[in-house]
TrEMBL record:
Top-level taxon of the source organism: Eukaryota
PROSITE patterns attached to this UniProt entry: FLAVODOXIN_LIKE (PS50902)
Species lineage: Eukaryota, Fungi, Fungi incertae sedis, Zoopagomycota, Kickxellomycotina
GO cellular component: membrane
GO terms for MF: FMN binding; NAD(P)H dehydrogenase (quinone) activity
Matching Pfam families: FMN_red
Protein name according to UniProt: Flavodoxin-like domain-containing protein
Domain Flavodoxin-like: 8-195
Region of interest: Disordered: 237-276
Listed NCBIfam families: flav_wrbA, PRK03767.1
SUPFAM superfamilies reported in the protein's UniProt record: Flavoproteins (SSF52218)
Length: 293
């Protein structure tokens, strides 16, 4: 947090504009609180223009496009996207797959984040979309802030309402012809207001936020010293039966690794830097897999 108010980013991906409208209502709620600074961003498109044209996608808004590095400046964020087969769209996955370097420096540790959505149909998977996305938050050490049943509107069964305890939302209809209702937007605004309260509380606690990220960065000396280097492979555990003599630490938190199951090492692990804690880890990992190199 640089100023007196926590900086909260609202970032979204939207093909047809529904999530964009919900994002605007959430931003309004954040600003209404007058306790946080709020900025609206869109996630980069990954589909080529001709494919978007075939999908009858709406023209892109003029909202600035965010980068992972820019997101790391925020003290917390609210992230919205439409459902694709009950999970997040590839555009959002691609954006988070580009945050490996930030993961290794603990840039998001202890920061709060919330989710919001759109689906084509009423039971098209808003909740599965949220649930299946939580792994990203967990690995980054991000604190997920659900909406809960914050509004009586969420018990309103008289009309189709988007959103749930997982976050605000809207139902676009099978052809996208529905627009976010007044009730959807009220719920979204409330999510912004409530999220601001949580962000203010967390940012005033020195145990989370900036201090936690600094501690995590210090636990990964290679990553902190070489910001342009490729992100190291995630360290899940030491396989059972290895010759490791010192406990392997989780590279983000510095805590001892808990899970015993070996994870398949991504390509980056094949050419590890042979220095520091990570270098030691990779050396042991290679030894345990019987590599002679
Ligand atoms: C490839 C694809 C998969 C989709 N999968 C689902 C789905 O599983 N459930 C659902 O209700 N809607 C699904 N939809 C509809 C989108 O969720 C809907 O178009 C979107 O919520 C509209 O939001 P937007 O205007 O912000 O893009 C899908 C759309 C596409 C293009």
């Amino acid at each position: 947090m640089t100023g007196s108010k926590p900086k909260i980013y609202v970032l979204y991906y939207s093909t047809y504009g529904h999530v964009h409208t919900v994002a605007q209502a959430i931003t309004k709620g954040l600003l209404k609180s007058n306790t946080v600074d709020a900025e609206l961003y869109q996630i980069p498109e990954t589909l080529p223009p001709d494919v978007l044209e075939k999908m009858h996608a709406a023209p892109k808004s003029t909202v600035p496009v965010i980068t992972p590095e820019k997101l790391a400046e925020a003290d917390g964020f609210l992230l919205g996207f439409p459902t694709r087969f009950g999970v997040a769209p590839a555009q959002v996955k691609a954006f988070f797959d580009a945050t490996g370097q930030l993961w290794s420096s603990g840039a998001f540790v202890g920061k709060p984040a919330g989710l919001f959505f759109a689906t084509g149909s009423q039971h098209g998977g808003q909740e599965t979309t949220a649930f299946s996305f939580l792994s990203h938050f967990t690995h980054h050490g991000i604190i997920y802030v659900p909406l809960g049943y914050a509004s009586p509107l969420m018990f309103d069964n008289d009309s189709v309402i988007g959103g749930s305890a997982w976050g605000a939302g809207t139902v676009a209809g099978p052809d996208g012809s529905l627009q976010p209702s007044q009730k959807d937007l009220e719920i979204a605004e409330l999510q912004g207001e409530n999220f601001a309260k949580v962000a203010v509380k967390l940012s005033s606690d020195p145990a989370v936020g900036d201090d936690a990220a600094a501690a995590a960065a210090a636990a990964v000396p290679d990553a902190a010293a070489a910001p342009d280097a490729p992100a190291p492979a995630p360290i899940a555990a030491v396989p059972a039966g290895t010759a490791a003599t010192e406990p392997v630490k989780n590279s983000t938190t510095g805590a001892p690794a808990a899970a015993p199951a070996p994870a398949p090492a991504p390509a980056a692990a094949e050419t590890p830097k042979k220095s520091g804690r990570l270098g030691n880890f990779f050396a042991k990992l290679k030894k345990s897999f019987g590599s002679s190199s």
